[in-house]
Design goal:
Four copies of one chain form a homotetramer. Chain A is an alpha/beta fold. The first copy, chain A, is built from twelve helices and 14 strands. Chain A has helices at residues 12-21, 42-45, 62-68, 80-84, 87-92, 107-114, 132-135, 151-165, 195-198, 212-224, 262-273, 322-336; strands spanning 2-7, 27-33, 57-58, 71-74, 94-97, 128-129, 145-147, 175-180, 203-204, 231-236, 243-250, 279-281, 299-306, 311-318.
Chain lengths: 352, 352, 352, 352
Amino acid sequence: MIKVGIIGSTGYAGAELVRILMGHKEAQIVWYGSRSYIDKKYYEVYQNMFRIVEDICKDDNLAELCEQVDVIFTSTPQGYLAGVLNDEILSKVKVVDLSADFRIKDVDVYEKWYKIEHKSPQYIEEAVYGLCEINRDKINGNTRLVANPGCYTTCSILTAFPMVKEGLIDVNTLIVDAKSGTSGAGRSAKMANLFCEVNENMKAYGVASHRHTPEIEEQLGYAGNCSVTINFTPHLVPMNRGILATEYATLKRKADGSLPTYDEIRAVYDKYYKDEKFVRLLDKGVCPETKWVEGSNYVDINFVIDERTGRIIMMGAIDNLVKGAAGQAVQNMNLLFGLDEAEGLNLVPCFP
Amino acid sequence: MIKVGIIGSTGYAGAELVRILMGHKEAQIVWYGSRSYIDKKYYEVYQNMFRIVEDICKDDNLAELCEQVDVIFTSTPQGYLAGVLNDEILSKVKVVDLSADFRIKDVDVYEKWYKIEHKSPQYIEEAVYGLCEINRDKINGNTRLVANPGCYTTCSILTAFPMVKEGLIDVNTLIVDAKSGTSGAGRSAKMANLFCEVNENMKAYGVASHRHTPEIEEQLGYAGNCSVTINFTPHLVPMNRGILATEYATLKRKADGSLPTYDEIRAVYDKYYKDEKFVRLLDKGVCPETKWVEGSNYVDINFVIDERTGRIIMMGAIDNLVKGAAGQAVQNMNLLFGLDEAEGLNLVPCFP
Amino acid sequence: MIKVGIIGSTGYAGAELVRILMGHKEAQIVWYGSRSYIDKKYYEVYQNMFRIVEDICKDDNLAELCEQVDVIFTSTPQGYLAGVLNDEILSKVKVVDLSADFRIKDVDVYEKWYKIEHKSPQYIEEAVYGLCEINRDKINGNTRLVANPGCYTTCSILTAFPMVKEGLIDVNTLIVDAKSGTSGAGRSAKMANLFCEVNENMKAYGVASHRHTPEIEEQLGYAGNCSVTINFTPHLVPMNRGILATEYATLKRKADGSLPTYDEIRAVYDKYYKDEKFVRLLDKGVCPETKWVEGSNYVDINFVIDERTGRIIMMGAIDNLVKGAAGQAVQNMNLLFGLDEAEGLNLVPCFP
Amino acid sequence: MIKVGIIGSTGYAGAELVRILMGHKEAQIVWYGSRSYIDKKYYEVYQNMFRIVEDICKDDNLAELCEQVDVIFTSTPQGYLAGVLNDEILSKVKVVDLSADFRIKDVDVYEKWYKIEHKSPQYIEEAVYGLCEINRDKINGNTRLVANPGCYTTCSILTAFPMVKEGLIDVNTLIVDAKSGTSGAGRSAKMANLFCEVNENMKAYGVASHRHTPEIEEQLGYAGNCSVTINFTPHLVPMNRGILATEYATLKRKADGSLPTYDEIRAVYDKYYKDEKFVRLLDKGVCPETKWVEGSNYVDINFVIDERTGRIIMMGAIDNLVKGAAGQAVQNMNLLFGLDEAEGLNLVPCFP
């Protein structure tokens, strides 16, 4: 049985980790870290866990934690893990970091977009970007540190990945217009996230400045073996969960000037995703809906070719707390420990 | 492996049965009945089931169905099962009926409240009212027909049951003010259930005339061994799932004129529910919230004593599609086949 | 032109006052008080007011404010007005208080339920409880201080008033089960009011202890000329605006033991409300819905007689920010200054 | 007093016309047309209008209607008006058509996108596209037929208009990603619009095929004096009202290769909109939110320049039922009859 510690277990992503791990046959949470609720019963913070979790919230004493667990999930504010990580920790436990601290290889880019100094750049190189469908072969028993991808980025990258990888689109025309439920904003008490401010409302935010932009660019750059600069615009939607990414790019034309056909592009998507358990390429003509993946680790993807404009419109949907955070973190843990990648993640989407 | 047939598998309750049974280790759905979608792939009706269910929707040919399955769930309009049930069916398969056809023992009461003629009253007597926590000992391998309780009734009865059973309240003062999410209204295309009609709105309906009233009265009557006449008022709430019942009753005073204490009443609730897996008596002062049970088979219950008025206010919350329909139906199936009552029902509530 | 000052103009009720007064022909806001946003443009706090309100938020310097305005609305936390009110203020301006400070005549009751000391009990006696439909004749040019009723109380009292006034119900059986949208919780940043905590959720709160209880009891006591003790249970509903009160009481029977008829009770409601502009008695069989009054000053009321239990179920719906707060405050202002009571309040409900 | 007839008064847009015209000082509705509810009281269809509208719904007898009114609003399915319009009608009354029948000048384009035959193409030429801010000078006492713009198109066009008009963007790079509340889908009982299908869900629809696409292209083509082909992707959002358009286009660079500055582009927007009552250019850095225009005729617009990609991101928000339908129709009526363009439209946005 893998022993698990969670730092930041009382945020929404942390709580989703707890929910998912309750159904994991090979893992057991032994440390519910939560600086805000030390000594409080976990179920008093999340009453849905009443009679399910009897543990008390603990602090984030990493030295002690390292002695008790096999893997640590850090679902913490940006900068936390970079500030405390050291060789001793990495020698004793595996770390899956749900924050952005080790996602971006170029520390200058990190510091510019996140506006904080990176305190342990020496670990960036070895950290594996944990987008399992793409980096699966780098995540195994030898891996010490996994940078769990962001919610928007997971959805945005997977939706466009085969097109970029195969060089079928002009990457510099790529525009990602993303829409997210409000749990992505976290559980802290901010006026902007009050029910009456979000409900019956919709807005863009972080326009041309959102921190997930360089993360998408870096990963798609690896895929296309080129530099990628995109527009990424997140929007806040009055729903709890779900991210929908609508992505636009100009298709490269064939030698005869014609566009690739639906079947040709479908074959490319199939090439990468046909055998992926958690990626569902929908039938032709069916647009992804966030509700169809709610509570599950699926990414639903489809695309439409617009003959008039020569563009492809790609659409992807995930549950931001599952595939966009806790579910993917567990998927990474499964890979780290050589388990069935889907263990604990056979979650059937809940509708309605 | 128990073979399962569902008649009405494309309604919301039917779809929840499918979701739950996907995680049941001893049961397998072999017949997805849906008169409206015959020959259509099930996942085309519920895209959340894409890549999970590959079956085609079938008709409701019970003669054929009986040959193929061990148990039939009927999630059908009132009157359907009563219209088709016969000895042959009951000799071959067990039936768990999610409609109201066999819930009420007095056929006149049924016909008066439901305004339809009962076509097979001969089976009413043997049907067991499948409120597992109360009638568990009557649901076993010998039982042929289970009347799965209504959503409002499950919540309303369980919330008040210990008080009525122990004679601690004046049952004729009992008032049940219940609030339900919109999935309780089903998936049929009615203007009153359009998003724009329900969203940002709240109303009572079926005031003093809702069909769940006699069902609650009958069952609480058995509990209290007395005649019970109550007010039951359902309300429609702009949320997908969840029922909250707020119940009011005058406490019987002790010989010295004093009211029972919190601890005394708590002890009574504990007597009946302490060992019940799916009933959670919340800590003192914590009011049930529907979100805390969403997606699970739990009933969360608590109460407050009002010294000023001498009344007890009892509150219960369930997920109307789980404990109020499909979850309880599976719980009944487990009892019918001698399985662990919780098999397939270890569902952790999803929050947020 | 009446000059208006608002203390607490950046809360939800304050903002609704601003919205309503924009359409008032005889009043002009000259002081937007907001301790939290001093020197900030009002529209920066409420962008819906961009290009409509150009004013800057000011402090709550009452001495100065008194010199500039004819009437002050205080939409402030409990205890604020009681702490600052004095003879000079009342000699210069009229005050409409949207807080609870002067609603309850018995200072002990106030202090017990609100758990704060009342700092100026000497003004309680003269304060008029501003439920216009009932106390209209006490609100005029001579009135200095109006205690604007609470949101739940406005709805709860008006729904039951004729029945209590005419002695048709046993007041001690009265139970008020009320449901409110989330704007009633105000605009302060509390975790419990975050979108993800309220959305898809429903709960009771303040059970047997909510502060609006004694206010309802006092006013219905005046109506019935008797002591009234009730159960009042508020619930939080995932919608922005709206209160629905469902009220239960045992009907007094006639000498022959029969219940009053629908027409008889309807005549009683008509007696009090037929000529009331803002009270709409719905047609027989139509239940009030909060959406039908949204954005307006209406109270929609109806009732059902349950012959089986001998109870009447009364239902009332208001917009908590309009008739439950700002609209009624303006209605009171109109009465104070001898204007048409409906000036500025001809607001057509917005649907959907 | 202008006498108004509405054909289709019981759809959501028709009902919004009624709401708005209740506050219009120079117009009076004398004909509430509704084929579905003939002889039913209007308020029985929209209970918010109880005690406000006492009229009965009538058929769509245009011959009779023409004798009684000065202007007809047709809020009807596509093809209706084209099927019944004739010279006699146009000789007697003015017509403001909220359907798409006369919006598109090229009948082939209309027939291709709408997939219906246009029954009276002879009136297309004279119909004025009623986007008041742009075509104001063509809408006056001589105009007989106004094609009221679509909801998505109003928002999409106004948001990009100054940029296209002044040739500051490469129009062929224009991408419009639009999000709409559910009232845009109308009041007909369709399963896809049920509360439980829309709530907690988000999806794109009509990708590369939505009918508002050619309408946007045509109007922006007039603005830019060029052919325009765009991608337009609508999305369904779980809220009642509101459209948010997020638009992307590549900025033309200056001779020196630099991008235009924020101030330069702001000046262009100001040139067209500074004096427009219903267009609000927000302060720098403030993104439009649909809630801030709810219930009003405003369009809130802003933009961000992305130096990294050389694109401008333009954002616009409207209430789809007001500026996107009924409000703009009334604005057109005001122009047709020489009234103050804002009469009846001084609607303050409602928040929250």
